[in-house]
Structures are given as structure tokens and as C-alpha cells.
């Protein structure tokens, strides 16, 4: 159970800026409470105590963010176009600090890959990371976002612009194509979304 010594009002603002809902404390000793993805933060005088099954979901934000993370993304379409899903994970020295998966309706594989990349970058941004090393197993998306290949399809061009806006919000970033086995967690999450797990 991490205990973070900090200015609790600054910590509250960081959480709210990241979209975490902060509510009043349950007792006279608690200043406020916040919950996210299985973690609960409770603020006292000069500290915040984080509890729950996955405290890393809040500790990065409470410590003021910063630091470097690895970001993995994967999107898939069964049928191309067909039912599509995405998976993504953000990993720091604290372990997996954010991950997600969801079905995104009917679309193409390339659109699903872009959707996964954008959601992964939003997750890294929400956790306040300064530097990201982004990895995905779609060579097309990686080369288009890096500007090495042209993007002819208008919808993909819009998604490329959004991905670059998010990347440019970090102090430093890299984007690399990796084999599927390196991108295993994001791939698993996308498949879990398909299977309803």
C-alpha cells in the first residue's frame, strides 16, 4: 500500500486534470478520495494512501507524473472490414500502469490499429508521462505516423494527424514496429475484447 508524501491539493488537481473523479472523504480525517481501475487514493493532511488491487493506476499521477513509459498498441478487424477491437498497455518502472481493450464496431484493420494507437497515447498522456517509447506490430501505421509512407485514405489521414498531435505533446517519443510476440499484451487485450472477456 503506497503512501505518497505530497501537497494533497496539487495531487487532487493532477488527478482531476487527468479525468479522475475526486469526491469528498468519508470521514473527518479524509480530505478527499479518488478511484480508478481498481485503485483508491485517500488524502490525509500531507499524504495520500493508495489502496486496491492495482495502486500503480494512481501512483504515477499522484507523484506528479513525469518519467518514461513503454506504450504498446494493437488493433484488429475480423473480416476487414468487420467487427473490430483494440488493446493497449502502458508500462513504466512501476509495472503496467494502464491498459485497456474494447470493441469499436465495424471497421478495417488499419482504422482499428490507429484507434488503438490513439487510445494508448491518451492513456500515457493521462498518466503524465514525459517520454514514451511506442511499439506496435503494424508496419503500415508506424511508417505512416513517422512520415515515411504517405497516407492516401482521408479517414486514416485524420487519425494520423491526431496521433502526431498526441505524440508531440510528449517531451520525447519514439515509434517502432515490433514483431507480434513483443506486442503480446496489446494483442491479448484486443482478442479479449473480441471474446467478451
TrEMBL record:
<dbReference type="InterPro" id="IPR012337">
    <property type="entry name" value="RNaseH-like_sf"/>
</dbReference>
<feature type="domain" description="RNase H type-1">
    <location>
        <begin position="65"/>
        <end position="195"/>
    </location>
</feature>
<dbReference type="InterPro" id="IPR002156">
    <property type="entry name" value="RNaseH_domain"/>
</dbReference>
<dbReference type="Pfam" id="PF13456">
    <property type="entry name" value="RVT_3"/>
</dbReference>
<protein>
    <submittedName>
        <fullName>Ribonuclease HI family protein</fullName>
    </submittedName>
</protein>
<dbReference type="InterPro" id="IPR049863">
    <property type="entry name" value="RnhA-like_halobact"/>
</dbReference>
<dbReference type="InterPro" id="IPR036397">
    <property type="entry name" value="RNaseH_sf"/>
</dbReference>
<dbReference type="GO" id="GO:0004523">
    <property type="term" value="F:RNA-DNA hybrid ribonuclease activity"/>
</dbReference>
<dbReference type="GO" id="GO:0003676">
    <property type="term" value="F:nucleic acid binding"/>
</dbReference>
